[in-house]
Amino acid sequence: MSTLASGAPAGHRPAPIPRSEQGPASRRVVVAYGFWLFLLSDIILFSALFAAYAVLSGSTAGGPSGARLFHRPHVFVETVCLLLSSFTCGCMTLAIDLRSRPWMTLFAAATATLGLTFLGLELAEFTDLLAHGAGPSRSGFLSAFFALVGLHGSHVALGLVWLAVMMAQAWTLGLRPVVVGRLLCFALFWHALDIVWIGVFTIVYLGAR
Amino acid sequence: MTDASPRGADGARPQRPTPDQVPGQTPGEGLPGGPPQRHEVWVALRKVAFGLGASLLLTGASFWAAGSPHVYAPSVPVLLAALAIGQMGVHLVFFLHVSSGPEATNNIIALAFGVFVVALVVFGSMVIMANLDANMGGMAHATGTTGTTDMPSAGRSSSP
Q1: Consecutive sets of 10 residues in chain B, 160 residues long: mean pLDDT of each?
Q2: Are the C-beta atoms of residues B70 and B63 closer than 8 Å to each other?
Q3: Which of A55, A115, A75 is nearest to A201 (CA)?
Q4: pLDDT tens, A126-147?
């Protein structure tokens, strides 16, 4: 059966070209690889702050500990917002594959709304902590907490600005290959932020004793 | 090595078009020439939706395990770590599309190196600081605000 299918000369799938004869990798692969390297270096930056948090999480200097400060339902809603925004971002990528600007814009708007909701919830949490005297200058634990979670939040905020710029480019320049490449890089960035958040909610919020 | 793997499903195409391929495709741009088939997009959408479902399930399990009295308490950190690593894997495969395909080889090597560096930084810091903490009197009975544990992040944290 399979020999018949592969041996048929007029099959709808042409014989694959050997890797050694395909020439340089396509632009899409090379751009994604370069951006992947950037994302990994960004994750290494986060890992330094994770290490600082892991070392300092117990040094509360007589101040409040994480278990007293964090509200898990609040964090759960934040997490679901970010997960859903990752899903809508994936849908946006598919709309771009179809070259459908209305669907792309719809899913980008959904992604931005969920991202803004996440940021709003995080800012509400930060202001609540500050109002209770648990600011970053209170203890080593809170310094590490605000550095780590704040860095993630600022990444999300920058990602939202990037998304807005990309929507403007998509509507003024059209979905030409350069713009599509940038949009795909944005999608990678957004999914990577979600991966970092998995580490944050597991280590910081659920690991708080 | 990779000759047998069909690369048509995700729209990736060989760089140099064979004569029986679409002649209008510009090889330099690398993006798929025409719009992909509808059913391919539905397959991809199902993949992303599965990723969302699995990820929500794992998140729910994490929050449940952290707060539930039915889980043996000393095993909770290990369980949380396992769930988090599983969820990161789900994200890598279903959202970031890290695959075993031939053009993902470099990405996977870079990912392995990144994981290696992250593990070195995090566990190395924890081991070194725990060792310092144990050998320099420790912070357990030192009630002061500053001490040895502030050393590794002195450039970042602004503890008074």
Answers
A1: 42 43 38 62 89 94 88 88 93 86 85 95 93 77 46 42
A2: no
A3: A75
A4: 999 999 888 899 899 999 999 9
Question: In which region does residue A139 sit, left (phi positive, over 0), alpha (psi from -120 to 50) or beta (all else)?
Answer: beta
- Tell me the per-residue pLDDT of A21-79, one tens digit each, with 9 for 90 and over: 777 878 888 888 999 999 999 999 999 999 999 999 888 888 888 888 899 999 999 99
DSSP string over A180-207:
HHHHHHHHHHHHHHHHHHHHHIIIIIIS
Residue in chain A lying closest to B113 (CA): A40
Q: Please answer whether residues B15 and B31 qualify as being in contact, where contact means their C-beta atoms are separated by less than 8 angstroms.
A: no
**Alpha helix stretches (DSSP H) within chain B:** 38-67, 76-90, 105-135
The span from the CA of A146 to the CA of A135, in Å, is 8
Residues in CB range of A51: below 8 A, 6 or more apart = B121, B122, B124, B125, B126, B152
| Both tokens assigned to B82 | 């396992």
A194 at B interface, C-beta within 8 A: yes
pTM equals: 0.78
B129–chain A nearest CA distance, Å: 7
pLDDT recorded at residue B154? 41
Distance CA A205, CA A129 (A): 14
Flag if A61 and B145 touch (Cβ within 8 Å).
yes
CA B58 to chain CA centroid, nearest Å: 14
User: Distance between CA A21 and CA B147 in Å, rounded?
Assistant: 61
